[in-house]
Design goal:
It is a single chain. The chain folds into two domains: about 60 residues, no CATH class; about 130 residues, Lipocalin. It is mainly beta.
Amino acid sequence: MFVLAQSGTKYYLSYSDFVREMDVSPSQVIGKPFYRAKYDQDRVRQLDHILANGDLSTRTQFYYDGYRNLVLSENYTADSILITRTSFVPDEIQKQMLPKIQGRNWISLQKNYFTVTYYDSTQKPVKYEVKAASGEDVGRLELRYNKQGALIYEVWIRTRDNKVMEVTEFEFDPEKSIQHIVQYDSSGFEISNVSIELPANSADSTR
């Protein structure tokens, strides 16, 4: 997708211009919001969104495998806080999400799906979105945490009808150092209820 015949820096007036490789001279972006792309070995490595006053708005880093295929992109704020991470290779979220939606015997393929992960200001993942190569939303996993930052709730959702596929609730008993995990199916029926004794020095309820 992002292939040019040279390395260096290019300037674009919009993101769509960047995708279409319609760059402009640096003088044409003065006083306007624009995108600045840095290329190395014919691959874009960094894309900066610059505001009209010249301040950095967001920064996106691109990573490739040994075959020069895009495998990961990360989007940051101007203060270098991670906002989203997009994986273009099979991952654990796809491995869990797709069988819930497509059937237990379904096997994920790299060319078919990618995963977008959203983070809060503390860098905890709060939502995963699995998308088809066409950009169509397939499903999402939403996560919630308590004030101590421990995971307390996760829900798997099929996007096409917003149907809840599975819910898991986590409760941590700090006095006994025990984590209670209750899981429900798409009909709201309890399918699992376990209590796990954690090490005495465990600080939170994350798995």
